[in-house]
Amino acid sequence: MSRMRVSRRQILQNTALATLLSPVLRKMEAQAAATSPRRVILIFSPNGPMVAAGPATGSESAFTLHDWWKPLERHRADGIFMSHMASTGVGVLAGGGHGIGGQVFDGYGGGYNGNQYLTQGPSIDQVIGRRLEAENRAGIRRSVVWGSGVSDGNGPYVASPGRHIRPEVDPSKAWNDIFSGFVAPAANDAAMKRAAALRARDQSVLDLVNANCAAVKSALGTEGSRLLDDHCTTLRSFERNLVAGLAGNPAAEKCAKPANPGSMIWTDPENVDLQMSKFIELMGATLACELSHVIAFQFGSQGARNRLAASYGVPSSPTADSGDSGPAHHPWTHQGNSEARVTAMRLFQTWYSTQVAALIDKLKNTVDAYGKPLLDSTLVVWASELGGNEKNRDSHQNGSLPVVVFGKGQGLFRTGRYIRGKSPDTGRLGAGYPEAGRDMGRLLISVMQYMGLSDINTVGSTGVTGPLMSLYA
Amino acid sequence: MGGIEGDEGDEEGTPASDDAAPAPSAGSAGLLWPVRLDGAPSALRRLTRDELVSTLEVLTGTAPARDDLPEEQRSDHGPLLTSGMSFIGPEIGKLKQVMSDFAVRVTPAMLVKTGCASTQQTQRDCLLAWSLRFAEQAFRRPPGTGESAIYQRILASADGTKDGNTIALEGVLTGIFFSPSFLYRTEIGAAVAGKAGLRALDSNDLAVRLSYLATLAPPDAELLDAAKTGRLKDGGERGRQFARLAASDRGKRALAVLVFEWLGANERKVHEKSQKYLTGLGADFEPSVRASAEAAIRKVVLDSADPTVGGLLSTDAYLADAPIQKIRQAFGTGKTASGDTAETGRAGLMMHPHVLAGHTKDDGASPFQIGVFMREAFLCEPIPSPPPGAADMARDGVPPGSTMRESLEYRTGAGLCQGCHQHFAPMGYSFMPFDPVGRWVKQDPTGKPWDLSGSITPASGSAFSFKTPGELMRGLASLPQVHGCFAQTALELAFGRHLVTEDQEMLVALNDAVKKTRGGVAAIFQTIVSAPSFANTIASR
Q1: A65 Ramachandran zone, left/alpha/beta (phi>0; psi -120 to 50)
Q2: Tens digit of each residue's pLDDT (9 = 90 or more) over A57-93
Q3: Separation in Å, CA A106 to CA A126, A447, A460, B91, B293
Q4: Cβ separation B392–A428 shorter than 8 A
Q5: ipTM over 0.85
Q6: Do B388 and A96 touch (CB under 8 A)?
Q7: pTM of the model
Q8: Closest approach of chain A CAs to the CA of B482, in angstroms?
Q9: Running DSSP on this structure, what letter comes out for residue A64?
């Protein structure tokens, strides 16, 4: 009898463990078969489609993309299209609207320092980047945060409580940050000698800065640790990169350095298409050259003041109760329902889809140092800040959230599918709404585990545990 | 309701999240304005972009573009306060790039300044001595133990050749400009007997605090001499030094930055507006309109016999400036026709186009944004952020033909919205005619005349009514509560943080000075720098 009880418990345990660990086991198998580093791109589209649930309808295998997501049709075999998800933390954390929706990638919710828009913890791009850095597999930047349009308001990417990261919206400055120091190996003895002298000098420069950082931190006591740990840690990673140099980066000699996008008024909406094409080029090159493995991108901040070129014909919104107006995404989300509002939502959502589709093209067509398309090892997660639904046209709902994941993750994820999430069509609350938020949290856990943070089994302060099992092959 | 005194009985109710806002202590302390004592003292203070630029200019004669430096995060509507703010990972990468590029750019000129023209070890010794002096100025303190050895290593390539010297000095400058001792100010201080939490600044740190308040830059030789000889311990001497520094060109720029921070207009915003509003203004409009506002500040504060806070809010000293004339002239036709009228009555810096551009959105006026700003910045009465789901609380079904004001009043007329909006919306509505760059649009988009009237009840007194933005600004300009609120902002900028209970003695002194001088700007700054507590810092907690 005793043996029987033990045996049954063992069986149950083994079953549960097998269920929990199967993605990890598969991941390990996949890792053994591939040598490309794992990469992730997070994409945030501000506000939401408002009047359309998207991105697809139908069954898991026989589905139709919504018109506004149609530009992604050519990549349907590479994507997992999820509708009716909900912002991370919905039903678990206090708050709503932008206060929760803006934090779709962190799972902490707002409320830092009494401000509902300031999140209380880091987003997963930062969590992943720090781990990669600590394990010396980050490239020259633990992560990058880029964006299109103007850099305004509080964005989805957060370094620490209350510290939202302002994205770089100038592709030229982004290029400078990543590629200006990326040079081919010295061609002759004299050049090699000079390069060695520069490396020695730069090592001493970092010695100076590191020593100074440690001294200031020490003088400040516990406050120094709190405020300067990140600063000093980042400096040490610069040092490691310097020591490793090109020798530590096998991709360096095999990837193409992109041209500097050059100077332009990149925040002018008339340049937004060019701006996006440059960022897409930079994303591909950054990953292929292994200068960073974590890219966070946003089409706008919580304020969603982003605009398109005039040729798209976005109608101009009257002044909204939010105080803004004109042919931007945000003011329309504060207007009552109208044809003009639907038109504006359609144009923005279709444009976002078009840009994501172009990025996937880039990832398919760029080969990494191991001879494989970037998309083989790159997970792309595109999440909207707020949702949308034909049956519930509330302007700031956190449910009915469209989420799209691209990439098989070295065989880990099963793509070419549509998954209907658990949030209801109508109402701000109700059955399934919190569970959809928990699933979004689980999706983030899946992303972190994919990137090698296999010991992480929760996200933010949601209390959610375990990966989103429905993603896996 | 954000702790606004007298709002506790708001029958409309308030969002639960509002309870987090600490109650101001106006009245109970006998002060002219409501004070929030919820600061978080820190011994570390990140240099702002303005401070970095000024500091590098002092050190090298030039600086990187302000816009190339990592932008600080503003966590609320008030001025930029950087105490306890450090650079975060993504900013550090950008900073390193900017500082490295800058070091490369200035090295040739700095090599000349070193005066070192020898070879081999003599050259390295010369550059080392110069580097240590330069580091002392940049770090605002003498070199630490062991630093000399590191500089020697960086300078190893300096052999007297142009290339060798350049590589070496670039390294020194990059290292200095990227070091925390350069990028941050530290105010650690020493314990004060019998006063827990208070720490007395040493003379050097006191000079640095005074200098950055007055000039956004490190101390000059005269101030350092005053520090070394112990004279800065005397409040009167600090006042004299401040007045001397404030009268310098760098001091005038620092004053403009401080006033712009108070006015919420220290960032470039004009270029972000929709192109249709910028057409015809010319490429130099943005810098020239800011220069006009800076000049107006100088006229009020430095050229006037009796500079007051009220003067800043009621001056018309800028009306004849060329970029302002461009904005004020008649433009366009029909419903979008613009141009100043008698109703405009521009009064004060808040109605200056540079400042207005800081409070409008890309395509129009933003009455709620500007109303909230004025309530908080001028009256020190905080407004809580909208509750979750605020947008969905707005009423749909705006009656056709409604004016912009009627539409917004209808949308926000529901109970919960109105509870907060009543405190700031009237001020915002009076600014509705201004377009994104500060032109006065002559009528509502419906073609109806504007209704700009309203009334407000400040925490310190009775309601006053206004019919135009000019009347509103003149009314605010005369309020002692507004003068005191400015003094509080000046103090917060001096300390780089919000206030705490230990600041009450200073607040009382400021209250007296504001009363006595009716909002005298010079008196406010003199009171701050000469008060005994200016020489102290508060331990972090």
Answers
A1: beta
A2: 999 999 999 999 999 999 999 999 999 999 887 877 7
A3: 9, 12, 6, 19, 42
A4: yes
A5: yes
A6: yes
A7: 0.88
A8: 25
A9: E
